[in-house]
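TICKET: design request
STATUS: open
ATTACHED STRUCTURE:
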């Protein structure tokens, strides 16, 4: 969903005549929704009411999600092979309202044995707690866990959990 979040964020920021510098985009990848909005308001001096800003952002995200939620190329064959031998889990920093909508839309539960949002844990990514919580739920030690990540904050979270990280 990262490319869809980026499209939504570009639309949101354009409402405020803000063009995000290329070097700032990694700050947003893999962070919680709350962190994204707080960071955006502070970093770019957005004076809009926080709740209004959040509602606009959520609507842009949902607009992008409704168009299409593509799988990363190669995901389906990989998860099919892996899930034959191993317990699989999805740990996302996405808020529950987005996660649940996506679960229904593309059938995520058909691909993963367990799914959690960082919103359901003590602290969200980049803290390791979401991964540690998943490991606890499936009763596996970090040394026996492999995490595949696609964002800087997610990689930090995964590494801090003590797991092997790709």
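STATUS: resolved
RESOLUTION: sequence designed for all positions
ATTACHED SEQUENCE:
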């Amino acid at each position: 969903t990262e490319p869809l979040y980026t499209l939504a964020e570009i639309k949101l920021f354009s409402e405020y005549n803000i063009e995000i510098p290329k070097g700032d985009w990694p700050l947003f990848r893999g962070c919680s929704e709350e962190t994204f909005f707080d960071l955006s308001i502070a970093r770019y001096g957005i004076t809009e009411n926080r709740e209004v800003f959040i509602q606009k952002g959520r609507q842009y995200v949902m607009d992008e999600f409704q168009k299409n939620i593509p799988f990363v190329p190669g995901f389906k064959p990989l998860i099919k092979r892996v899930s034959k031998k191993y317990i699989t889990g999805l740990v996302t920093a996405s808020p529950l309202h987005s996660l649940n909508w996506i679960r229904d839309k593309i059938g995520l539960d058909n691909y993963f044995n367990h799914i959690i949002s960082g919103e359901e844990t003590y602290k969200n990514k980049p803290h390791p707690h979401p991964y540690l919580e998943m490991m606890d739920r499936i009763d596996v030690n970090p040394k026996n866990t492999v995490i595949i990540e696609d964002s800087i904050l997610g990689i930090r979270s995964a590494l801090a959990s003590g797991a092997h990280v790709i």
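CLOSING REMARK: The first helix runs from residue 2 to 14. The beta strands are 89-92, 114-117, 146-147, 164-165.
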